[in-house]
Amino acid sequence: MSVQFRPNLEILAESQHEAFHLEVRDSYGVPSEDEPFQRFLNNEPFDYREWFRGWSGFVQELTARGVSFKRVRVITVPHSDYQRWSLVMAAFNVEAGEDIRYLPRHLAGDTPPDDWWLIDNKTVVFNLADKDGRSVGGSAVTTDHEIVSYCQSVRDRLWVLATPYPDYIRVTSQ
Question: Structural domains in the chain?
Answer without folding.
Answer: 3-172 (3.30.870.10)
